[in-house]
Amino acid sequence: AAKGVTSKLDFTPISPVHFTVDEFTVPSGYSWTPIIRWGDPLFNDSPAFDIADQTEAAQARQFGYNNDYTDIIRIDGENGRRAVLFTNHEYTNEGIMFPKAQLDADPARVRAVARAAHGLSVVELTRRDKNSAWTYVKGAPLNRRFLIDTEYQLTGPAAGSALLKTAADPTGRTVKGTLGNCSGGTTPWGTILSGEENFNGYFRSAGTTAAQKRYGLSDKATGRGWELDDLRFDTRTAGYENEENRFGWVVEVDPMDPTSTPKKHTSLGRFKHEGANVRIAANGKAVAYSGDDERFDYLYKFVSKDTYREGDRAHNMTLLSEGDLYVAKFTGNSAGEIDGSGALPSDGAFDGRGEWLPLVVGGASAVPGMTVEEVLVFTRLAADKVGATKMDRCEDVEPHPTSGKVYVVCTNNSNRGKGTNALADEVNPRTANRDGHIIEITEDGGDQTATAFGWNLLLVAGDPAKNKTAYFAGYPTDKVSPISCPDNVAFDSSGYMWLATDGAPSSIGYNDGLFRVTLEGPERGKVEQFLSVPRDAETCGPIVHDAERHVYVSVQHPGEEGTFEEPHSLFPDYVKGGTPAAGQVRAPRPAVVQVLPAPHAK
Ligand code: FEO
Ligand code: CA
Ligand code: CA
Ligand code: CA
């Protein structure tokens, strides 16, 4: 956004909404409508959603649970009236999906339905014209569910490695299913990347090796109990010791080809990937940024070996298979003055320099004592060895589409500075960081492939009314919306950043929401709340088409703290009494929501 930028998406910020309120709130002059909800039928043979009689077979043909990363990609030549919606399904909340009686009486059925509610969805959308709301098209040709038995092809140097072979896959090249899909990114060539994040929770493991401990794998029964149904989720099973190594990757999907085989790219390393976002450097290389969303874990960058070719989709889909992998080390220029309170350093800025430490370069390991395969499969161990900077949970990491500056969203880290944990430093400046912060990286020379960079903190989040150290790049703190636990990022065509939050109810006592942030000019640091999601929900996958004045979010885990019998949320159907209309249920349903100027036409 240049100085004095105006956007067609004008709005008066909403007031923050108390965390007990079960409402989806939008600014005056806007209205909202769900595009697709958990259980909506995707195919001509899909049964209608029946929450009282859920089956694995039905769920496999319906929209999954807990939609997170979301994008809407226009289909060419359709005048903006057709598109595909991609959404992943991060995890399930059995306690609000099923009645307690069923959880107790039929756990095997519950597990099977929940498994089918994981994975990915692609579904076609249609609308009357560019001003209308989208509706999804049941039975459309591009509709697809990716399930626990969908085959993914491993690419890159670790594909075929002994570390990835199992009895069912002696080649080490084909994995069934994807787990813990969190955020993602849409590539410049039109494919979708999705990050496998909290995969460890799906495995019972020996939990004895350094790698297993470092990745949070342990010899405990899992919460979902899938190891009772399929022994590959119990990696103590002979022949399946490596199954856990086959998750924790960046997945790439071509949403325009329903017969395509999705990929898992080993070149980007294995960790709890929040997501990945790609920008093409001036020299044509594809550069992917990705954060490991774990307290005290790291920020990574991948640089492709080959270069982008405009219009050559097949070639571009190979770019993430081979290249160099780096991990970030940050240095403050005011170190020693950081007291952990989040107060500004004496030089008036949280800022400094950084370097991208090599892990794999030119096809060779840069980490003493580890092979390339080991670096890619046990990337956290490699990054430990080279001395990367321990971060406050990197969620989305996304380059700005015009400036190329990279925004790193650190959501929070309540353990910073506690006990023997790493102390606050200039780039993670708060002890017990409940509210999170955002780093702005400028690669040296504006070159996305540079190995050194400058950085500063754009925001140190919080409610200024309660936390005097909340910092908004110097913008007056009495003129901003309170914000906490930033998670997902989007940019609009006017250059504004949009931040979705996850965790504000427990930190500042407000429901999570979507916020616009001004990045440039005299209003840099201004934060304006656009919407608020229902009780217990997080805001995910924001998409902002500001020229159309349309905003889309995924509402994930509404009513998560409630039960089936005593729901905290009835979003989005809001059936409070009487008989639900056809297709409605009296329970919370994760959903993708469209916000557009009111009144809108269906
Ligand atoms: Fe699934 Fe990092 O949020
Ligand atoms: Ca999530
Ligand atoms: Ca400084
Ligand atoms: Ca997230």
Summarize the topology:
Elements: E1 30-37, H1 56-59, E2 67-74, E3 82-89, H2 94-97, H3 100-105, H4 107-116, E4 119-126, E5 135-136, E6 144-146, E7 151-155, E8 174-176, E9 181-186, E10 192-196, H5 210-214, E11 250-253, E12 263-265, E13 277-280, E14 285-291, E15 295-297, E16 299-307, H6 313-316, E17 323-332, E18 351-361, E19 364-365, H7 372-377, H8 379-386, E20 391-392, E21 394-399, E22 406-410, E23 437-443, E24 452-460, E25 486-491, E26 497-501, H9 504-507, E27 513-517, E28 527-532, E29 538-545, E30 550-556, E31 591-597
Parallel strand pairs: 7-12
Antiparallel strand pairs: 1-31, 2-3, 3-4, 4-5, 4-6, 7-8, 9-10, 10-11, 11-12, 13-14, 14-16, 15-20, 16-17, 17-18, 18-19, 18-24, 21-22, 22-23, 23-24, 25-26, 26-27, 27-28, 29-30, 30-31
The structure holds MU-OXO-diiron (FEO) and calcium ion (3 copies).
One calcium ion binds near residues 333, 345, 347, 350 and 426.
